[in-house]
């Protein structure tokens, strides 16, 4: 059988790869990222050659403004490529170096963020469902190695997926290696731009490309293709594990009204460590929005916090992400500020009294109280003859004590908070109701013995807390 030409072989492999991964639907509008380099030129030519897909292509180029006139020439070349295929062309300049300095990022990371933001904007403006990127199998191998030396786990070592989660970014050339792409370009007679920064070994990816991969290839010829295959196998495993994590997340991770996450400590402890670690990452992503700058040490610290015999603790993660253990719960939130202490409030009589920080205390004249065991924690009844107005409502102070209902002796309020598992950060915001020097009620926790309702009580009031978190 006659061997296929480099062009026919590449088209056959890419056509099958696109179908296998469901990258496009016939007639899709697709943004094609074209830098002007060999890979993106090949991608654009291949997508135009696959006529059966009937794709509406839009060529997009981001000028990183790192190489002066050379960067401008890359932009002009990309525009000429679009013109050659009679396709729309969109470009934008971005001062990536200034962005890296401003946001304290590496040039590589800043460039990547700038590109994705630009492609998202172009896709939105043109109503495109998909953005096609020109990463190939050698890029995949380099990405795996780069993440491996940085200490990535399974998700990172899966490297780049053919279709990114959400389906808006696709990589049709992952099935081809650099040699196949160069042979394709040579047979088609297509010109492309050479970016001199691709040889600068100051960048980690370039050191891996020009130093580590050739060394590995000497140890085992074809190492890059085997590494790319390893990434593919790991990606399949990650997809399976991802389903297990989603099932466990439905059981253990609850989203809070503030956009964070909360988990039960005992339930987490019963899961295998590998699943626990993935659940922590899931919870961090819910609170923070992504997993940028979250490393092994952060996840390991969370696991130690969950397994600790100490019932409380706090971890500060990057980008103002806070993880707090409070007894049998662990919460993940971002940009959390400590809840301010409750401001003093004097209650002159029945009425609706707003509390600082939200919520209100409602006091009403009442008769015939229900049995104490049937009262909600947010409600209490008092004998007015034993607890005359005015009352004082304030937050907890060290040294506060009360005589709990049904007891003869006093107990520290701090100990009552501990028994009731009130998180430390909430304690100073829990309303304490005083009549004179007598502590009548720790709202939501314990009622006091002073001013309890008895058979001889003649004047009574009921107090209720509304719209305020107490635990």
TrEMBL record:
Question: Cross-referenced Pfam families, in alphabetical order?
Answer: ATP_bind_3, TilS_C
Instruction: Write out the annotated subcellular location.
Output: Cytoplasm
One cellular component term from this protein's GO annotations in UniProt: cytoplasm
Sorted UniProt keywords: ATP-binding, Cytoplasm, Ligase, Nucleotide-binding, tRNA processing
| Swiss-Prot/TrEMBL catalytic activity | cytidine(34) in tRNA(Ile2) + L-lysine + ATP = lysidine(34) in tRNA(Ile2) + AMP + diphosphate + H(+)
Cytoplasm is among the record's keywords: yes
For this UniProt entry, what is the primary localization, expressed as one broad class? cytoplasm
The enzyme's E.C. designation: 6.3.4.19
Q: Where is the Lysidine-tRNA(Ile) synthetase C-terminal domain?
A: 391-463
MF annotations from Gene Ontology: ATP binding; tRNA(Ile)-lysidine synthase activity
Q: Does the keyword Transit peptide apply?
A: no
**Binding positions for ATP?**
35-40
Q: Which GO terms describe its biological process?
A: tRNA modification
- Domain text from the record? The N-terminal region contains the highly conserved SGGXDS motif, predicted to be a P-loop motif involved in ATP binding.
Cited NCBIfam families: lysidine_TilS_C (TIGR02433), lysidine_TilS_N (TIGR02432)
Protein family according to the UniProt entry:
Belongs to the tRNA(Ile)-lysidine synthase family.
Q: What is this protein called?
A: tRNA(Ile)-lysidine synthase
Q: Which organism is it from?
A: Geobacter soli
Name the gene. tilS
């Amino acid at each position: 059988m006659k061997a296929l030409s480099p062009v026919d072989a590449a088209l056959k492999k890419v056509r099958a790869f696109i179908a296998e991964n469901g990258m496009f639907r016939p007639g899709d509008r697709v943004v094609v990222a074209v830098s002007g380099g060999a890979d993106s030129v090949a991608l654009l030519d291949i997508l135009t050659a696959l006529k059966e897909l009937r794709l509406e292509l839009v060529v997009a180029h981001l000028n990183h403004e790192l190489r002066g006139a050379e960067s401008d020439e890359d932009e002009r070349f990309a525009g000429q490529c679009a013109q050659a295929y009679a396709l729309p062309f969109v470009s934008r300049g971005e001062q990536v170096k200034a962005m890296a300095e401003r946001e304290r990022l590496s040039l590589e990371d800043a460039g990547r963020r700038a590109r994705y933001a630009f492609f998202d904007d172009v896709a939105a403006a043109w109503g495109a469902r998909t953005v096609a990127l020109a990463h190939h199998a050698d890029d995949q191998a380099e990405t795996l190695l780069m993440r491996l030396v940085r200490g990535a786990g399974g998700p990172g070592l899966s490297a780049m997926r053919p279709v990114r989660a959400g389906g808006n970014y696709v990589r049709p050339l992952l099935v081809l290696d650099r040699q196949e792409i160069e042979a394709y370009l040579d047979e088609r007679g297509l010109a492309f731009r050479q970016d001199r920064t691709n040889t600068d070994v100051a960048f980690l990816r370039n050191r891996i490309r020009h130093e580590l991969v050739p060394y590995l290839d000497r140890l085992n010829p074809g190492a890059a293709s085997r590494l790319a295959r390893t990434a593919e196998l790991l990606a399949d495993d990650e997809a399976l594990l991802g389903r297990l994590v989603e099932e466990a997340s439905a059981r253990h991770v609850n989203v809070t009204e503030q956009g964070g996450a909360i988990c039960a400590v005992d339930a987490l402890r019963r899961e295998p460590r590998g699943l626990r670690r993935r659940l922590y990452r899931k919870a961090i992503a819910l609170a923070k929005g992504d997993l940028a700058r979250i490393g092994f040490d952060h996840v390991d610290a969370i696991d130690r916090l969950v397994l600790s015999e100490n019932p409380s603790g706090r971890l500060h993660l990057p980008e103002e992400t806070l993880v707090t253990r409070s007894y049998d719960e662990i919460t993940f939130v971002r940009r959390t500020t400590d809840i301010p202490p409750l401001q003093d409030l004097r209650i002159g009589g029945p009425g609706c009294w707003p509390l600082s920080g939200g919520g209100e205390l409602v006091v009403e004249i009442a008769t015939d109280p229900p049995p104490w065991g049937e009262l909600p924690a947010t409600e209490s009844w008092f004998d007015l003859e034993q607890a005359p107005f005015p009352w004082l409502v304030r937050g907890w102070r060290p040294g506060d004590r009360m005589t709990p209902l049904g007891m003869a002796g006093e107990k520290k309020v701090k100990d009552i908070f501990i028994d009731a598992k009130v998180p430390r950060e909430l304690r100073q915001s829990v309303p304490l109701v005083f009549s004179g020097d007598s502590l009548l009620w720790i709202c939501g926790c314990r009622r006091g013995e002073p001013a309890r309702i008895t058979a001889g009580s003649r004047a009574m009031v009921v107090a209720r807390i509304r719209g305020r978190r107490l635990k």
